[in-house]
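Before we proceed, please read the two lines closing this message. Let me know whether the structure tokens fit the sequence:

…
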Amino acid sequence: AWNLDFVETTPEGSRYRELAAKVDESLRFMKAIGIDTSSPEFTTVDFYVAHECLLLPYEQALTRQDSTTGKWYDCSAHMVWVGERTRDLDSAHLEFTRGVQNPLGVKISDKCTPQELITTIDTMNPQNVPGKITIIVRMGAEKLRSNLPELINAVRSEGKHVVWVSDPCHGNTFQTETGYKTRDFDAIRAELRAFFDVHDQMGSHPGGVHLEMTGEDVTECTGGESGVNQDTLKERYITACDPRLNGSQALELSFLIADRMQKRREMQA
């Protein structure tokens, strides 16, 4: 597997190995009591794709009308989102998404005001359909702690149905002195922790995490157990666009998320 080296050499890897052993034991138990673990329920998953609604001619070319309902769908993905740089209230991007039935998202930074967010939600989801709109927050840890609470309050007071998602990568991008575009693992982890902290304080629900990652052993983001630093970025920096977390760094974050979700369950019990 892509993370076997990490499993063998880190404390988080030991936790992963223990978890995998428990899953394997559970599957063996189910098989022993007669459950068919080769059935589609155990061997297949529902797989969904999403991407940024950036190039409108591309999105428009793949938009189709459902012959049975008459509704319009952007068939380029299951879900499309509008980015921070194209979410102006009078933008063609918001107007396009308003006309399709796909689940939609919008990325917001610390520049987004509560009223601006409410107007954006009303534009993209005028019927306030639950589950249709995902708010993807990308601010950096400190700005998130100071700005996200008032946004949550505004959404709550207006009765808007949204899913809150953290994007801890995009707000923590910088360029090194040698010209490499990178992200620091500690900053990513700090923003993710801030996201959970704010939702714990506000009594709202952290609905998901948006990461840029790969299972490959790349050296594109610094920090974490993998030990990537600015001097070693050049060793396996192969991205065609943004820097990605490697398999080791992604697994570290997955355990952080699992721990926080476990603590939330214990708090609500």
